Automatic annotation (TrEMBL):
Keywords: Cytoplasm, Hydrolase, Metal-binding, Metalloprotease, Protease, Signal, Zinc. PANTHER family: LEUKOTRIENE A-4 HYDROLASE (PTHR45726:SF3). Zn(2+) binds at residues 329, 333, 352. Gene3D superfamilies: 3.30.2010.30, Neutral Protease Domain 2, Peptidase M1, leukotriene A4 hydrolase/aminopeptidase C-terminal domain, tricorn interacting facor f3 domain. Residues 1-19 form the signal peptide. One of its GO terms (biological process) is proteolysis. It is found in: Cytoplasm. Its cofactor is Zn(2+). It comes from Stylonychia lemnae (Ciliate). The keyword Glycosyltransferase does not apply. The gene is Contig5610.g6004. The keyword Cell division does not apply. GO terms for cellular component: cytosol. Its main location: cytoplasm. The lineage of its organism: Eukaryota, Sar, Alveolata, Ciliophora, Intramacronucleata. This is Peptidase family m1 containing protein.
Amino acid sequence: MNLLLSSAVISLLAALTLGYSSTNYPYRTASKDDVSYANMDVLQANHFELIVDVDFDKKVVKGVQTIFFDALQDVSEIVLDIQGLTIQRCTYTIAGKGLPGQIEANFDTFDDTAMGTSGLIIYMTDKAFKGDQVTAAIQYTINQDSVSVNWLSPAQTAGKVYPYMYTKCTAIHCRSIAPLQDSPSIKITYAGAISCSDQLKANMSAPFTTAESNAPGKMTYHFQSFTLIPSYLLAMAVGDLATRKIGARTYVISEPSVVDDYAQVFDQLEVILNKTESYMTPVPYVWGSYTVLVQPPSFPVGGMENPLLTFVSPSIMQKDKSQVFVAAHEIAHSWSGNLVTQRDWHNLWLNEGLTVFIERKVSGLLHGEPFAKIENYLGNITVWEDINTFGQSSTQSSLYPLTGNNPDGVYSELPYEKGNQFVDYLQIILNEGQQETDFLQKFLAFYINKYKYQSVTYLEFRLTYNEFVKANFDQAKATDLISKVDWNAWIIQGGKNPYQLDYTTPDATTFQELADNYVRLDGYDQSPDNYMIYNQTDNLNLKVILLQQLLVRTKYLSLQSMMKLDKDYGCTWDVNPEVGQRWFPLAIALQYQDAYDDAFSYVSTWGRQKYILPVYTALVRNNQKSLAIKWYNANVNFYHPIAAKSIRKIIFSGFEEFEHIKVAETLLRSQK
Ligand SMILES: [Zn+2]
């Protein structure tokens, strides 16, 4: 569909505000998604056209959102999800009714403060009947304090000349970008237009079509997606941006002063894409090109798999390419998540667990099985930490957490790592006793192909597993394979898995023992005999194992041990943020003052929550809250609003909510 409205319409739609008042919410969440108030059960969106004008001076975005619906039942109201938007005007039309174009509509809003979300009700004076095509247009403003928009001053960019803005929608923050049926159960195409200063470039998670200058000093960029996506994959970035081609289908975008360095780090991007596509055969990469946009350092997560425009943190741009696996993860989402999507946030493991499995499978193909196994070893540590944080019997330590609230509140690595372990278990039983055929690969491809462009729950995944084994094995074997999967124990119940997978490797054990030796020597004697293995390895994950094991042993470490470790390894000055993530909390716990200046520099350099939240948590836990507040205040304008909110939660929730802090820490340890 073409854009019905040009950006000029924004100015034509004068601020005519009809009957508006905020009300309590008599509305219920959707039957398919308990964190969306949209009435998608009766009115299903199939396309939207979003026009926005980005004003860096006022730090606001003015928008017009036009949504196209199919009426599934007779309906006279349109209910949409919103969050923090100021609604100026709503109109609607119903095709084939002889209505005079867009009709002014009264509207109302309501707030669900517990969930931190709101709803918009548009009252149609003409009733739409089942089968009708309904269109609604909403004029609105994204305010300066939007939870999903990060505004950066020129000083906070690499180039230091131009301002910058980007959005981050997961889990349910797309509704703070535009009124929507903000649910992954709805998959939709969209067209977008972004107007901004002609000195800047705009990007969206859809193919670019044209750009034109329709006002002095302004440029409007147009985008059009042809592939169905869930709302959380809507994304925008506006700034001084340049593009570099990596391979036949792969590109890198970032600021001009850093884009060439980043292109160098990502020189294997095409190889990773090809290898992933090869593994997913016969389901091809359907999105056309693949582009990574490397964000400024405030980006709050490692990566976000927006189709055609993956966002990544520059923290993964290490020259040793040790963090490029994050790109492998986001590429894998092109199949698991973006093509076949979780229907709701309870089923997050379907997106993330499958993606981690595919990512590590590709890592193993590229770097060898031991490399992937050590990633699983580290992942298993976080599974245990998360299970202990949430509790063995808690629904939150299951792959189907039932909380009925904002999914941000229960975010953890469990859907990633426990989900990956479940798929790994399926691999073990499906391939047992033979090596000729990779039945797990065949099953994943069968599942993705069957549900491509759709949203599913684990029930569809389960049915597909049963269907697959019946079609590929004799009756006795199929019955055995079906009986071997206790879906209730794996998915619904919390706590440990019903089958324990072994991810230990000789290298992992050696580095774990190295941590024990540092504790035993207590910093006074010589270093452990094999201490140089840390400096000699080129596998960052092995270094992480040592540091992680030291963290677990914090109460057995002394200040002298810290000084010895720093002398041997220079952890305080290591530029790799994976080191700082473990080292600085350790330094704070042991009051190792030599590291404090660098710790402050660290939380002022990175906005990725995985890296900075452990530092703030360590300060609060170790009675240094005033320092945490000082460091936070110095950086509050740099952090993305989501990260700033997480830090405030850690600092101000207090020890009486200690469990809450632990949850927040887990939640953001490794979002990707
Ligand atoms: Zn992911």
